[in-house]
Design brief:
Elements: H1 3-10, H2 12-27, H3 32-45, H4 50-63, H5 72-87, E1 98-103, H6 110-123, E2 128-133, H7 140-151, E3 154-156, H8 164-177, E4 182-187, H9 194-211, E5 216-224, H10 230-241, E6 246-250, H11 260-266, E7 272-276, E8 284-286, H12 289-296
Parallel strand pairs: 1-4, 1-5, 2-3, 2-4, 5-6, 6-7
Antiparallel strand pairs: 7-8
Helix pairs in contact: 1-12, 2-3, 3-4, 4-5, 5-12, 6-7, 8-9
The structure holds guanosine-5'-triphosphate (GTP) and magnesium ion.
């Protein structure tokens, strides 16, 4: 399946909600003022977020003349342009050798995303090694090994309960020795408590800075799109602990809450970098504002 087709398919639930909401706003026979008010409610209910919805509708109002509000095609096109402008961010340029640490609360899709990323980079001709930094959960490194096999990349792991920073140290040594282009680091989603987890992530960052200063360093937060607005709280918490370079939003295929992408992207300049639209190795792609908006409206 072409990459665009898989994205389009993955966004079906969100698209159904958006088109349903828009249709009911158009059918409402509202006056100009009411129309924009209803549209704002509709965006909010589609998880776009209060602030972002308000700003988008304000911009739309300025663009659209009185006589045009009944022309649904015209409005939809303007709305698309405005949303694209809102969420379009500078392309992520990865500098190699790259060290990419994947963080996020438990179950969001970190390990799966590592497998997909390993495949994504190998397809581009890059060499990849994975560090099994989740030493807390018993089955974590076995699960990661399955992904490493699928993606046909190397994996560095130590036993359960070992120090993740030591695993990362080993992986850096190996990446340097073999001139590997990309080191992907899996991390735990849950420790004994949240403070522990954040300290552990900081420690891994310190090791990377100390042992591999010449690498491009990236911290990506994996967020489950089905969590809706809670995503914003997670982004804030992790960004305070380790500077985030962006978000990877997973499980967009399983939710109608895809509007949350617009909200995350407009909050604190936190760009969505990749999106996951399924459980298979190919179900990940770099975020593209235009493709995304074309997939939901
Ligand atoms: N539908 C769908 N499922 C996904 C996607 N990404 C991950 N999953 C599923 O989400 C579940 C959890 O994924 P994991 O990769 O184990 O999540 P994790 O963040 O590593 O979990 P912990 O290690 O326990 O913190 C698995 O069943 C995955 O198959 C996605 O984009 N779409
Ligand atoms: Mg995991």
């Amino acid at each position: 399946m072409g990459i665009f087709k898989s994205l389009f398919k993955g966004l079906k639930k969100t698209r159904d909600v958006f088109s349903g909401l828009l249709a009911s706003v158009f059918k409402g026979g509202y006056s100009r003022e009411e129309f924009f008010e209803q549209l704002e409610y509709a965006l909010i209910s589609a998880d776009v977020g209060v602030n972002a919805s308000e700003q988008i509708v304000k911009k739309l109002k300025e663009t659209v003349k009185e006589e045009k509000i009944k022309n649904s095609e015209y409005i939809t096109e303007r709305l698309k342009e405005i949303i694209i402008e809102f969420i379009d961010t500078k392309e992520l340029v990865i500098s190699y050798p790259a060290v990419i640490m994947i963080v996020g609360v438990n179950g969001t899709g970190k390990t799966t995303t590592i497998g997909k990323l390993a495949h994504y980079f190998t397809k581009q001709g890059k060499s990849v090694v994975i560090a099994a930094g989740d030493t807390f959960r018993a089955a974590a490194s076995a699960q990661l090994e399955v992904w490493a096999k699928r993606a046909n990349v190397r994996i560095i792991s130590q036993g359960e309960g070992s120090d993740p920073a030591a695993v990362v140290y080993d992986a850096i040594t190996s990446a340097k020795a073999k001139n590997t282009d990309v080191l992907l680091i899996d991390t735990a989603g849950r420790l004994h408590n949240k403070a522990n987890l954040m300290e552990e992530l900081k420690k891994i960052n310190r090791i990377i800075n100390r042992e591999f200063p010449q690498s491009g360093k990236y911290n990506f937060l994996v967020i489950d799109a089905t969590t809706g607005q809670n995503a914003i709280i997670q982004a804030k918490a992790f960004n305070e602990a380790v500077r985030l370079d962006g978000i990877i939003l997973t499980k967009l295929d399983g939710t109608a809450k895809g509007g949350v992408v617009i909200n995350i992207n407009t909050q604190d300049n936190m760009p969505v970098r990749f999106i996951g639209t399924g459980e298979k190795i190919d179900d990940l792609e770099p975020f593209d504002a235009k493709k995304f908006v074309d997939g939901i409206l």
